[in-house]
Specification:
The protein is of the alpha/beta class. The protein contains 13 helices and eleven strands. α6 links the parallel β7 and β8. The longest helix is centred in the C-terminal third of the chain and has 20 residues. It is globular, with a radius of gyration of 21 Å.
Length: about 475
């Protein structure tokens, strides 16, 4: 072994290529409570891109798992406290190149491992409609800032619904693009086969606009991406009528064990209303949808241990960009502050590590193989339907847990939201959440799912529904 050490000394001495930092900025500041009433900001800054472009005049918040050079990044966790990245993620550069103005980092859940908004070490993120309710996770800060009007747009991340669920809880638009359409380069991951990043906005038009800017091939730096990506002008393909569009209401997305009747009723009503726009609407069954929760669990638990714990946020054995300073920061944090992680993160990592030690990756491997059958099943359905529709989350935003709840109760709220969203992290199909209205003062989200790399159709359907809804 000693003879190999010289190679590591040489590697350590070599200069390392970094992702570019093109625009000046100052470090910014941690906002005071009076300017952070929803606790949705982690950090405030002011970074201006070019003067013209598609995003000129737009303000944006960036989820705090996305590196912005010179601005602290914590990803909701004490294990990263004090880390300041020295590079911009690719999507940050694209936003600034398009004239966007980044005004801060949005709070995220602890290492992005919660579907509610209470696990961030900086405290619970409040729902702008009812402040004692969840804003959703793990991109709850991004959604709350957009819904409250503090920013025009935000970036979220989605490994099991973390763009779509907060958007549903906050009553706005959240788009998980097709797997690989938007480069994940430099962003802190959860699991490489389910990682997505995308827009959170007030309107469908803004979602289409932001997608135009951030989508596209990243010259081989992100292994999730195919090399032949084409990015159309999504905003020019929107429409207010839907002649010839076939919409399938997915039976398996309704009547779940935790479904609320008003949510199911409102989403079905919204789907059938689109017949007035020229679409045909009917129910369709995809039994494989019900298997997704189990496959997702097997892949996410073991995959997170390999990617986030053992791989310190980079994993290994892929060709592309590795954020080495993030790896160092996580490695140091795991050694010194691992006891300060949330109960949710500890449970995921302990169970994932147990599975790895006792079964050697068997369940992860088998779930990945079975996932291919699930992809085929949905691809076959999309031969007959343009989009599928179901509730984003089967229930409205729950109340945030009190201080004296048990670990089991915390776990239940953090992990009971994925049944309808997780399947499309597994299959890679694009999925968008849009508000159908309010019940008991809380928004109800409808999820629209489309064919891979056909975001244009998905956005067209959502836009037409949005315009019809706003006229009613």
């Amino acid at each position: 072994m000693a003879s190999a050490c010289k190679s590591f000394d040489v590697v350590d001495s070599l200069p390392e290529p970094l992702l570019p930092v093109k625009y000046p900025r100052t470090p910014g500041y941690r906002p005071r409570p009076e300017e952070n009433k929803l606790n949705a900001w982690y950090w405030r800054c002011d970074i201006k891109g070019v003067d013209t472009g598609k995003l000129a005049g737009k303000t944006l918040a960036i989820k705090d798992n996305v590196p912005v050079a010179g601005v602290p990044m914590m990803n909701g966790s004490y294990v990263l406290e004090g880390y300041v990245p020295e590079f911009d993620a690719t999507i940050v550069t694209r936003i600034l190149d398009a004239g966007g103005r980044i005004v801060g980092k949005a709070c995220a859940e602890d290492l992005c491992m919660s579907g509610s908004s209470f696990s961030s070490v900086k405290g619970a993120i409040r729902n702008p409609h009812r402040r004692d309710h969840s804003a959703g996770g793990s991109s709850g800060g991004s959604a709350a800032l957009v819904a409250s009007g503090e920013v025009d747009m935000a970036i979220g991340g989605d490994q099991g619904g973390s763009i779509r669920e907060p958007s549903a809880y906050c009553g706005i638009v959240g788009l998980k693009p097709t797997f690989g359409l938007v480069p994940y380069t430099g962003i802190l991951p959860v699991e490489v086969t389910i990682d997505h990043t995308g827009p959170i906005t007030k309107t469908v038009y803004d979602a289409a606009l932001l997608l135009e800017v951030i989508a596209g091939y990243d010259n081989g730096l992100d292994p999730r991406q195919p090399g032949n990506l084409q990015v159309p002008n999504y905003t020019k393909m929107l429409a207010t009528e839907l002649p010839g569009i076939k919409i399938g209401i997915l039976k398996e997305g309704f009547g779940l064990s935790n479904s609320e009747d008003d949510v199911d009723t409102m989403v079905k009503k919204a789907a059938y209303q689109m017949t007035s726009l020229g679409a045909s609407v009917e129910e369709v069954s995809v039994p494989e949808h019900k298997l997704a929760d189990h496959l997702y669990t097997a892949i996410a638990y073991e995959g997170q241990v390999d990617m986030m714990m053992r791989g310190c946020g980079a994993g290994s054995q892929y060709k592309g960009y590795y954020p080495s300073s993030t790896v160092n920061a996580l490695h140091r944090g795991y050694r010194t502050r691992i006891n300060d992680m949330s109960h949710v993160v500890k449970t995921v990592l302990l169970f994932g590590d147990y599975l790895k030690q006792e079964y050697g990756g068997y369940f992860y491997a088998k779930a990945q193989n079975v996932r291919m059958d699930m992809i085929k099943a949905f691809d076959k359905v999309f031969e007959h339907y343009d989009v599928l529709v179901m509730p984003t989350v089967p229930f409205k935003a729950p109340k945030l847990p009190l201080q004296d709840v048990t670990v089991s109760e915390i776990w239940e709220q953090a992990m009971n939201t994925y049944a309808n969203m997780g399947p499309y992290n597994l299959t890679g199909h694009p999925a968008l959440s849009i508000n159908t209205g309010f019940s008991d003062g809380l928004p109800v989200g409808m999820m629209i799912v489309g064919r891979k790399f056909e975001e244009s159709t998905l956005l067209k359907v959502a836009y037409a529904y949005e315009k019809m809804r706003d006229r009613m």
